[in-house]
Amino acid sequence: MTEHTDVRHAGEAHASTRTYLVIAAILTIITIIEVGVFYVPTLHAILPPTLIILSAAKFTLVVGFYMHLKYDHSLFRAVFLFPLAIALAVIVGLLFLFRVL
Amino acid sequence: MSHAAVAHHTSTGLDSRKIAFWTFIGSECLLFGSLIATYLVYQGRSVSGPTTHEILNIPLTSISTFDLLMSSLAMVLALAAVQRGDRTWTRVWLATTALLGAVFLGFQAYEFQHFVHEGLGFTTSLFGSTFFTLTGFHGAHVFVGVLWLLTLLVRSFQGKLGPAKALNVEIAGLYWHFVDVVWIVIFTVVYLIQTTPLPAA
Amino acid sequence: MARAFSRRFRASPWLAGLVLATPLVLAACSGDPYPQSTLHPASGVGEAIDALYRNIFWWAVAVFVVVQTALVYTLIRFRARPGGPEARQIHGNTLVEITWTLAPAAIIIAIAVPTIRTIFDVKGDGPPDALQVEVIGHQWWWEYRYPALGIATANELHLPQGRPVVLAITSADVIHSFWAPKLHGKRDAMPGRVTHLAFTPDSVDTYLGQCAEFCGASHANMRLRVVVQAPADFEAWAARQAEVAAVDSTQALVLAGEAAFKKIRDPGAHSCIVCHTMAGVSGGVAGPNLSHVGSRSTIASGLLPNDSAGLARWLRDPLGEKPGSLMPRIDLTDDEIAALVAYLGSRK
Amino acid sequence: MATTAMPHPETAAPAAPTGLWSWVTTTDHKRIGILYGVTAFFFFLVGGLEALVIRLQLGAPGNTLVSAEAYNQLFTMHGTTMVFLALMPLSAAFFNFIIPLQIGARDVAFPRLNAFSYWVFLLGGLFMNASFFVGPLFGADTLSVAPNGGWFGYANLTSSQYSPGPNIDFWVIGLQILGIASLAAGFNFITTIINLRAPGMSLMRMPVFTWMSFVTQFLIVTAFPVITIGVVFLMFDRFFGTTFYNVAAGGDVLLWQHLFWLFGHPEVYILILPAMGIVSEVLPTFSRKPLFGYAVVVYSGVLIGVVGWGVWAHHMFSVGLGPIADSVFSASTMLIAVPTGVKIFNWIGTLWGGRLEFRPPMLFAVGFVSLFIIGGISGVMHASPPADLQQTDTYFVVAHFHYVLFGGTVSGLFAGMYYWWPKVFGRTLRDGLGKLHFWLMFVGMNLTFFPMHFSGLLGMPRRIYTYGPELGVATYNLVSTIGALLTGVAMLVFLWNVLVSRRGAAAGPNPWNAATLEWATSSPPPVYNFSVIPTVKDGLPLWREGGMEPSPLPAVPPAPIHVPGGSIWPLCTAVGIVVIGVGGLMHQSLWPSLGTALAGAALTVVSIYQWAFEPFEV
Asked: Do residues D608 and D116 lie in contact, with contact meaning Cβ atoms separated by under 8 Å?
């Protein structure tokens, strides 16, 4: 752990406004794709996996850029990703136990 | 939150409130994780009442999803404005974020009223119970978020939200983005992945 | 004080070992003072479970003796003595750490292998020709149905000796757990689900058991018996159950009892026929099937002996005998009780 | 509240304000720790009395001391009280008082949030136990509306169809309130341990008690949301008639079991890890040598916490999840026995080569190790699903978890009480009475719970208010009852020791000559803990030459120290939350219920805003 005495100014290595607009555009595009894929009957078979991947991408974008997890101290990643991993494991575990998966 | 703490010793040089809040967000992952797991486990097990295809309105919800995405953008710009000490744009973006959040709640209120009208009540079926509980919990979080943003807006007008207080807005931002991210998952899990077969197109 | 302490400690592992062994010795030789013992299986699957349990048990005793002795020895040897040696400032020892990580891991594997094998042995799917019995848990009694034989009974499950049986277990209200320890481990009876137990009873006997999942006020009173009979006796019993027990019209008391049974009381729910099925008389399903209640050895899910005294006590105050019972207190005159006792007793 | 004036260097540190108001508005982690300890020990005695009545009822077959309904309320409240109102808060008392001192901090990261946790716990505990007395308000007689669905509250027995009374409402709302207290404390301590360590105290130089508490807080923060959702579903089923656990509508009773045990098993590690931490502090001090394999003990604790998330369905082997699920959960349960075993061996390794002084803390710590070995082994015996089919829901399991929870956690907590008593109150508890207390409890505990192994193996199920003489377990139950009475006496000896020791000789800063940082400051510590925050150079700062600088700490703080004042808002927010709960309790009648709930909500929101904008400098 690095030793700091002063409270480091939050987000000094934060992204610029331009990045945020780009991220917003990407998120919008992904959402449009998601809804688009939903209406294509032929893709119906692979709908769940594609949608999960697309929403995971949106999830990562928002958490990484808008919530600064990519730039901030690795401690925040640990404190967030460990419970997130447990949550995902719980969901998958329950889906197996209730024979949904 | 109370004004910036006197610079005192921390082991990591990070602000305690930000550490605590990320831990809180981690804990909320379990809260929404359990709700989502229950929704998925109970999907298709209702014995009565309308099914997902008969009642869920994808176009309308896509718009509210876009609305929430844009509110995340407004939130980030609000934070940038506070950090720059730009009072005007701080207030503009805070107000915009709160407004977009309120619009989302409006969409949801309309959707809930419409579902009840269509015969899917809170106690009608498993689908009703799980749907309203999951989206209701999320809606409640959005409502708290809007209140929080309006409080920050008032603080800004009182001149108590200078650059030194940027952390308060950053933490509100973390909360808002998390609530947006939870909706991203809900939008996919509830609205788009409808495992029950599509009616003949 | 330290000396007294360590002497007390030195005795404890041997004392514990001895005390642990007593039930095994005791139960083996005396009659049957432990009817619900899990240590005396009477079915193939029960023996498999018991064998696995004994395997794990001896591992446990071994670990217990080794580790407790190590602890006690360390306490005695290194206790502070006046002028004794100073403590050695040891921080750790990687080799020792590795050994006492691998040792428990090895023991765990030694237990896990037979465990996994036995899991698949007892997973509850009997042969196709097995006797199928439906077990339905109610708040606070057991219902058994034999679909192939078209008969239904309560609390006392009759099974033929030597023939495999598959119990399809479910519940009509809350979660219960069907458990006859000498025949098999317990299996929960859950509303909305069907779970299974498959076993083959070895010997003719009556095995006791009771509900093992907390199910409300009279969870303690939800007892059961499994009556394993020789195949011929079972066939006779089943045939008897399928018939309608004729009412002996020469017995005035029995006839009065039948009338009392059929009587519509105020309030209506207090009438016997509303809740009970009596072959040829009534079809109520809320309570146990009484068509052949006379042939059972106990009533009220094993609480009372099935004799006139027991029947009278139950009829006079069911809620007193079984708290929370869904059978209400019916104001019966003594004559009606005597008549009902005679009538029900005759339903052999 | 005005913040306390900063002391002038020459003047002594500000004496802690006294009087009731200072306690009601305290934000000092030491006072909150004492409040937690006193309240939790009161509830521990209440739970103990409930256990005594249970044992008296089961002392003989067919006993009629208490009715079936009363017995079901007693065993439910015994379980719920011991888990949520006694053992967790007693551990929290140690978290509060000891963690800041062990890591060299002046207080926790969020002092007012800390006070809030205590007040919500206190009011939640009172709310839950009020159910014993408020029967008449619901048109029932007293002692009839306490929760009676078991500490596990399985669906659909706890649904409004099969538990129509307010009993389960008390349990459900009480649990939600207590959940808030635990979660708030969880975030507070995780941030404190991460961010307020003394300079030089890296994670691997942190005392083991703080490490185990750190793992415990992560388990709390991740496990409580799951049971909160499970209980929300039960609340909505009971209050609004939703169909989560309604089988007729397609609901599944197993959903409750999964959600409960997903929380339930991390919960039992939440209960045991702090005690393991205390033992890992006490054994080295009284063996006069460092803990054997510090890193291994720490990593084992972390491993137990992580794998603890993967074992929950070993509580459901009799449900018939299928051979594959049973095998997976059996394997993960057996896997967790390895790090637990490693911890026990490391404790014995700590004793090895030591100069063992059997003062009361050491007795209880060694008692913990010895009894936890038995509990751990009997646990592994039903980690195997086929064997568990015979043992689950019998008194064998009751014996197992009492060996682990009573023999383990309670012994560990008493070791902590005897160990840190001088640090908290400035006086040491009497040795003689301490040893008597230990031996009475050790013998009483074994007399009570060892025979339960046999009554369980002989087929005595759990939660039965009576049993027939034909079962053959009458003698074992009688011995258990005698043991319980003896254990009760042991508790009286402890209370006597507490009273008698109030005027004992003043204990100095380090009566046991221990190694960790809390022993560097005075006993009881000043309100600001350390006159100057020391720099730590070693995991055992007080034992190592130059392990702590400056050594010894200056008596009077060289520079002015800011000590945050009190605040009433945490208590007000807690009252608001409980008023919402009372509103929920009246859900049968719409308007009074809605009115009370809204009033509570208003009080809560106003208090939160006051709390947020009150000038308060940490």
From this structure: no
Q: Are residues C203 and C141 in the same domain?
A: yes
Q: Report the pLDDT averaged over residues D330-353.
A: 96
With a CB cutoff of 8 Å and minimum separation 6, the contacts of B178 are A67, B25, B28
A36 min Cα distance to partner chain D (Å): 33
Number of folded domains that form chain C: 3
| Higher-scoring residue by pLDDT: D270, C269 | D270
C237 and C277 assigned to the same domain:
no
Distance CA D186, CA D214 (A): 9
- Domain hosting C326: range is 252-345
The predicted pLDDT at position C7 comes to 39
- Angle at alpha carbon of residue D94, lines to D88 and D95, rounded to 5°: 80
Residues of D in contact with C34 (CB under 8 A): 458-459, 471-472
Q: Which amino acid is at D117?
A: S
Chains C and A touch (3+ CB pairs under 8 A): no
Query: Do D249 and B48 make contact, defined as CB atoms within 8 angstroms?
Result: yes
Sequence spans of domains, chain A:
17-97
CA distance B35 to B52: 17
**C106, C116 Cβ separation under 8 angstroms:** no
pLDDT score of B123: 92
| CB neighbour list of residue C135: distance below 8 Å, 6 or more residues apart | C142, C143, C144, C157, C167, C168, C169, C170, C178, C189
Cα dist. D112→B2, B170, C9 in Å? 12, 22, 47
To the nearest whole Å, the CA of D615 is away from the closest chain B CA by 6
Domain end, chosen from C200, C218, C242, is at C242
pLDDT band at residue D359, thresholds of 50, 70 and 90?
very high
Q: Is the pLDDT of residue C28 over 60?
A: no
- The domain boundary residue, chosen from C97, C121, C145: C121
A3 touches chain D (CB under 8 A): yes
Contact yes or no for D472 and C210 at CB 8 A? no
| pLDDT-derived band at A16, boundaries 50, 70, 90 | confident
Helices (H), D25-143: 29-58, 68-80, 88-102, 111-130
Prior bond to C267 cis, omega within 30?
yes
Cβ atoms of residues C181 and C34 within 8 Å:
no
Query: Dihedral of the CA atoms B144, B150, B154, B159 (nearest 10)?
Result: 90
Tell me if C126 is assigned to some domain: no
Cis peptide before B50 (omega within 30 of 0): no
pLDDT band at A39 (very low <50, low <70, confident <90, very high): confident
Q: Distance (Å) from the C-alpha of residue D390 to the closest C-alpha of chain B?
A: 30
- Domain boundaries along the sequence of chain B: 16-192
DSSP conformation class of C20? H
Both C287 and C177 in one domain: the answer is no
**Rounded Cα distance, B143 and B138, in Å:** 9
Q: Which residue has the tokens 């993967």?
A: D310
pTM for the full model?
A: 0.93
Q: For D226-240, write each residue's pLDDT tens digit.
A: 999 999 999 999 999
The CA-based dihedral angle spanning residues C219, C221, C222, C225, taken in that order and rounded to the nearest 10 degrees? 150
Q: What is the ipTM of this complex?
A: 0.92
Q: C195 and C226 in one domain?
A: yes
pLDDT confidence tier of residue D16, bands split at 50, 70 and 90: low
Mean pLDDT of D251-258: 96
* CATH 1.20.120.80 corresponds to the domain B16-192: yes
Q: According to the model, what pLDDT value does residue C175 have?
A: 97
Residue C247 lies in a domain: no
pLDDT in tens, C296-317: 999 999 999 999 999 999 999 9
> What is each CA distance from D501 to C312, D30, D414, D506, in whole angstroms?
62, 20, 16, 10
Cα gap D355→D371, rounded to integer Å: 22
Chain B neighbors of D205, CB-CB under 8 A: none
